[in-house]
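Entry 14. Structure prediction run on the chain below.
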Amino acid sequence: MTAVLDCTALIAEQRPVVLRGLVRDWPIVRAGLAGPSAAAAYLKTFYRGAAVVGYSGAPEIGGRFFYDPSGTAMNFTATRVALDAYLDRMLATLDAPDAPALYVGSTDLDTYLPGFRAENDLAADFAGAAPLASIWIGNRTTAATHFDMSNNIACCVVGRRRFTLFPPDQIANLYPGPLEPTPGGQVVSMVDPRAPDFARYPRFAEALAHAQVVDLEPGDVLVYPALWWHNVEALDGFNVLINYWWNMAPRFMDSPMNAVLHGLLSLRDRPDSEKQAWRELFDYYVFGPSERPIAHLPEPMRGALAPLTDLSARRLRAQLLQRLNR
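Output returned:
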């Protein structure tokens, strides 16, 4: 009987966890061990023709999807492609020294490869959350250091991958880039861990002192909590990763990044004395114990301070929109 992963327990300590060989029996892993062509052929058996987004970069970018020298645009292009033809393109330039960087990222498994999860899926308890299962395919490519707002289970199924992970408290030492544009929808570190420029980014040495480097073989699984920064390198000529994103928070809750943007709009440029006073209010209402602001209030008086429900979240969102659109 297959053991069921307890996802809540896996992230309880808020640190990365490696599960060696957990998915080594998946058919995609066995196909990959037979070679890139076998792995691509296996993926094609599930493909039904829907176009996916293919990311392509010149050989000069060294596989790292990032900004161009101007810093205002990307060093790659993104186009809709047929997955089977794109796989063939990867195989045709396999291990060529002048191969372009080719990458298919965060592609929904159930939508684009229906039936794949019937043969390759985790037995996991996500505590009632509905995980988003995605596939990532490419040659020797690198996803620049970034964070995700969801917990992550990353299953290395074809080729080897190297994750360099940094805890959330290292954000200042990672020198985050602009909020937009970004290479993949999330803020990325401006530092390349493979060749850091310490003269320009001196605090990155401190980030490296807190980094955890994990090398994954086919069949290995890495679990890490939301908001951990991670740089992901595909180390072989053909690589496939399956990941599961999930959150413990109810689905009706809004994205915390919206609160960051609102904070930029309403708080950041106020005098320091005011910001310190607002920090106290945030600690009281947001970051402290959720029951503290309502413990002394009768239930009819609690309003938006009460635990959120789907209905009260809708009301609060409508109230915010009305204020923002004044």
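The chain has a mean pLDDT of 95.
Filed with the rest of this week's runs.
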